[in-house]
Amino acid sequence: MSELKEITSVSDWEQHVSTLPSSTLLIVSFHAPWAAPCKQMENVLQTLAAEYPVTQPLSTSWVKINAEELSDISEAYNVTAVPFLVLIRNGEVLETVSGSSAARVRNAIERHASKTAAAGTASNGPAAGIDNNGGEVATEEDPEKKKQELFKRLGELVKAAPVMLFMKGTPSEPKCGFSRQMVGILRDNSVKYGFFNILADDEVRQGLKEFADWPTYPQLWVEGELVGGLDIVKEELENNADFLKPYSVKTNGDTAAAAS
Question: Is residue 224 part of a domain?
Answer without folding.
Answer: yes
